[in-house]
Design brief:
Length: 312
């Protein structure tokens, strides 16, 4: 009897232990499964978020490419009559291609539409508004995304858009070489001393002048350095990048101006050299240093703006 009851006790305890162990096992397995499932959930969310981030981060570059394609059209000798529409069209085409790539790569459906391309307070930036609809399985993302694309580093389309490629303008060594294009233009418009602008040059790429405030151009060596690097300047009178594409020498928007540099021994009064004056406003200036072949021809209000006082 005693042995028997002891045996029962052992069997009972063992059974309880086994049951407890089973419960523990079930609990552990369930927990592991639960944790794993949870991770999968997070991963798929992360994946969708990653796709959106990746897509939108690259939009700025796509916007810039869309502007550059419009610039290329001008350099190919074709007119851009509505730069906003042209850039919209270019961007939609770029994004259509990108959307197809994303669909193949990530199995997402992306619908994108460029709503607007517009000027900002800064003439160095263009604002894009793009409507995005992204769908992957049950997950959806819908938003109007705004991106600022910089025009710095792009080519200045104004000279060719204004004078046409037939005028004989050439571009090399990061410069626009006007050859006889400007003097011919001046002759046609009955402007003074067109021969002064034979072989004039200007920078090809949009670069923001670091000498700000501009009055510092009067400090020793600054104007020389500004011309050497071919910097552009902000100007209420100069035309914005979007209007430059359309060949407009001036526009109502806050824009840019650049010096057109003459290389001539002539000392006659001639057009003042900021590009909006040469292409639209048509008023005269004089050489800052009459004995310097490369001296800028500048009027008094621009001399004030840049702190350049007449040496001669
Ligand atoms: Zn400058
Ligand atoms: Zn404009």
């Amino acid at each position: 009897m005693k042995i028997n009851s002891k045996g029962n006790l052992i069997v009972g305890t063992t059974a309880i232990l086994i049951i407890a162990l089973l419960f523990i096992c079930i609990f552990v397995v369930t927990s592991i499964n639960y944790i794993q499932n949870k991770n999968i959930g997070i991963e798929s969310n992360d994946n969708f978020k990653y796709i959106i981030d990746d897509y939108t981060q690259n939009l700025e570059l796509n916007c810039r490419d869309a502007i550059d394609e419009a610039t290329q059209k001008v350099f190919n000798g074709l007119p851009v009559t509505n730069s906003e529409n042209q850039i919209k069209k270019n961007l939609n085409k770029i994004l259509d291609k990108k959307n197809k790539e994303y669909e193949e790569k990530y199995d997402v459906k992306i619908n994108s539409e460029t709503l607007s391309v517009e000027n900002t307070k800064s003439p160095w930036k263009i604002l894009f508004k793009i409507k995005l609809n992204i769908k992957k399985g049950d997950e959806k993302y819908s938003k109007i995304v705004e991106k600022n694309a910089s025009v710095e580093g792009l080519r200045d389309p104004l000279p060719i858009a204004k004078l046409t490629i037939m005028s004989g303008i050439l571009t090399y060594d990061n410069q626009i070489h006007y050859k006889t294009a400007l003097s011919t233009y001046m002759l046609l418009h009955h402007l003074d001393s067109p021969e002064s602008y034979i072989e004039a040059t200007a920078p090809l790429y949009i670069k923001k002048c670091p000498y700000d405030p501009y009055i510092h151009h009067g400090d020793p060596g600054v104007i020389e350095d500004c011309l050497k690097h071919g910097y552009f300047h902000e100007s209420a009178d100069g035309s914005c990048y979007l209007c430059r594409l359309e060949g407009k020498g001036k526009c109502p928007h806050y824009g840019l101006e650049v010096f057109i540099q003459t290389h001539t021994p002539l000392k006659n009064e001639s057009l003042s050299c900021p590009d909006h004056v040469v292409f639209a406003d048509h008023y005269n200036g004089e050489k800052i240093n009459p004995d310097d072949w490369n001296s800028l021809i500048l009027d008094s209000s621009h001399r004030k703006k840049y702190g350049l006082i007449n040496d001669g």
